[in-house]
Amino acid sequence: MSRENALVSTQWVEENLDTPGIVLVEVDEDTTAYDKGHIKGAIKLDWTTDLQDQVRRDFVSKEQFEALLSAKGVSNDDTVVLYGGNNNWFAAYAYWYFTLYGHADVKLMDGGRKKWELDSRELTDELPERAATSYTATEQDRSIRAFRDDAVAAIGVSNLIDVRSPDEYAGRLLAPAHLPQEQSQRAGHVPTSLNVPWSKNCNDDGTFKSDDDLKALYAEAGIDDSKDTIALCRIGERSSLTWFVLKELLGHQSVKNYDGSWTEYGSLVGVPIALGDEPGDA
Amino acid sequence: MCGATEGGLSLDGVNVAKEAIIQGQVLRDGEPVGNAYVRLLDRTGEFTAEVPTSASGHFRFFAGEGDWTLRTLAPKADPVDRAVRASVGSIAEVSIAV
C-alpha cells in the first residue's frame, strides 16, 4: 500500500463524481452531518448503528456487514472512497473496517469533509439511489486488529502508540474535549506507550503531512521499526487514522488497531496504568 | 436553561458544575458562520479537539482547568487564534470574528 493507492484528493473526487464503479461513503462522528449536506452521490454509514453490534460491544458480523453493503448498493469490485468529519477519524475507522472485512479497493479522501468545505465545494441534500447488490466479505483479518490481551502483552515489548491528546494521555482529561468529561473508567495510559497525538499526522486543513514529515515524526517519537505496533486511543477511531498512516502510507508491516482502546483498557481490573506525561516503566 | 448561551447550543443532560466549558460563536461581519471549524489547542499549542460550528455559528468544548487557545478556520478566511481561560463549574464565552 502507498499514498498513491490509499489516498485521493478532494479535486480528484470532484472530477470523478459521476465515474461508474466509484462509491463515495460518508462516515461521521456526528451522524447527522450527512443529513445536513453531503457530497453528491455519497451514501451514509452510521458508525453507531451500521458498524456496531447493537447488543454486545463488538463489530457487526461478516454476515451483517455483507447485508449492510448489499442493501447500500456496494459491490465487491467497487472503489470505495471514504470521507468524514473530524479530519477523517471515523472515515479512517471505516477504512480499517472495510480492510478488516477484505474489501479490495478502498481509499480515503485526503482532508475529509472539512477540506471539502474549506475548499467551498458543493454539498447536496439529495439522497442517491443505488440498486441492491450481493456483497461478499471475507473473515476478519485479525492481523490488523488488537484485543485487550494483546495490549497488555505489548507493554515493554512492542510499540504501543497512544494517539490521544497529551492531556488525555497524562490523565488530565478523560475524553476528547468536544465531549463531556463524565466517564467511569480510570484516567492515564498503558505503561511504555508513546504519545503521538493523531493530529501530528495532519495539517490544519485535515490533509495528511508528507511521507517524509510522517517518517520523521515517528522516528523522533522513538518507534522501533523492527517491532510490531499497536495503536490505541479512546474508542479506536482516532487510532484508525494513525493505523492508516503507519500501515497504508508508510508501509509498516505489522500494525494493529486496538479498537477497545482506553474505554476498555481503563476499565480492566488489575492491569497497570501510568499517569503523567512520561511513558512509564513496564 | 442555566448557563446556556442565548441562542446557543443546549446543555441539557450535561452536569455543568463538573465541566470547564468554553463556548461561543463565529461571526463574519456580524453574521453567524455555520461552516467554520474551531479547534482547541492546549497550553503547549498541541491540538486537543475540533468541532464544526452549528448553523448559528456556535461551538462548545469541555476542557480542563487552565489556559487554552481557540483556532478558527473558515472558508475564504485566514485562521484566527484567541486565548481563553477555562475553569471547572464555569462557562467561558468567546465571540470570534473571521
Detailed description of the structure:
The complex is a heterodimer of chains A (282) and B (98). In chain A, the strands form two sheets. Chain A has a five-stranded parallel beta sheet with strand order 1-5-4-2-3. Chain A has a five-stranded parallel beta sheet with strand order 6-10-9-7-8. Chain A is built from eleven helices and ten strands. In chain A, helix 3 links the parallel strand 2 and strand 3 (43-44). Chain A is of the alpha/beta class and 282 residues long. Chain A has two domains: 3-140, 3-Layer(aba) Sandwich (Oxidized Rhodanese, domain 1), CATH 3.40.250; 143-265, Rhodanese-like domain (Oxidized Rhodanese, domain 1, 3-Layer(aba) Sandwich), CATH 3.40.250.10. Chain B has a single domain, classed as Immunoglobulin-like, CATH 2.60.40. Chain B has 98 residues and is mostly beta strands. In chain B, 0% of the residues lie in helices and 51% in strands. In chain B, the strands form two sheets. In chain B, strands 1, 2, 5 and 8 form a four-stranded mixed beta sheet that branches. In chain B, strands 4-3-6-7 form a four-stranded antiparallel beta sheet, with no helix packed on it. Chain B is globular. The chains are: A alpha/beta (282), B mainly beta (98). Chain A binds chain B through residues 30, 33, 36, 85-87, 114, 117-120, 165-167, 172-173, 175-182, 197, 199-200, 204-205, and chain B through 14-15, 18-19, 35, 37, 39-40, 42, 44, 46-52, 55, 60-64, 71, 73-76, 79.
Q: The CATH topology of the largest domain in chain A is what?
A: Oxidized Rhodanese, domain 1
Structural class category of chain A: alpha/beta
Extended strand count of chain A: 10
What is the count of DSSP helices of chain A, taking H or I runs of 4+ residues? Answer: 11
